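Ligand-bound model needed. zinc ion.
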Amino acid sequence: MALSNIYRMLQRPFYHGVYEYPEESGHWYTGKHKPIITKELFDKVQEQLNRDQIVRENREFAFTKMITCGLCGSGVTAQEKYKKQKNGNVHRYIYYGCTWAKDLNCKCGYLREDALIESLINLIDKIDLNELGLKNKFHDEVMRYNRFQRNVLKRPGNEKSESDIDLRVYAKYILKEGSMVEKRELLSCLRSRLIFKDKALTLEKAENIDSRTA
Ligand SMILES: [Zn+2]
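Prediction:
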């Protein structure tokens, strides 16, 4: 069932015993059917739906479709929430969690995006990277930097070569400072599978990585 259908169901007064006829006419009737929820519960749900201001349209997030739920094997997806703080400011949060595609009762929980990035940065040293893909990206970045030094700052002497690069330092830098597209590109260079479990990320094939570094 699509998430939008669930939202629609949560907003149908029919389940607490009333219906409107004709639709949108403002004429409400009490049905002969047995309500399956109380009016109080219905009102509480509406209040919650309004408070969270959950954004329902599909948005692009940096790390969706690249992580697997460690409990049920579904994908991991993101949702965005806006929460009003006491001082009136609205704060945007991004949460990652199981899509429940394989287990509707999966209890893997949620992780905020900043915690997820922290978790990824901690994994970078152990991750099996497609170094070639990352090297090409780094090469473009160095060329861009040198053009900037030469043409904008007029400091050709400050140009850098890419001979002594630490790709893992570069990867961590992208995770912290990169755009969404750059983060997605970086994750597409990973060879290890990322698993979301116990509110943290782990790598699936730990034994392969051990034999590689041994
Ligand atoms: Zn799951």
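The radius of gyration is 24 Å.
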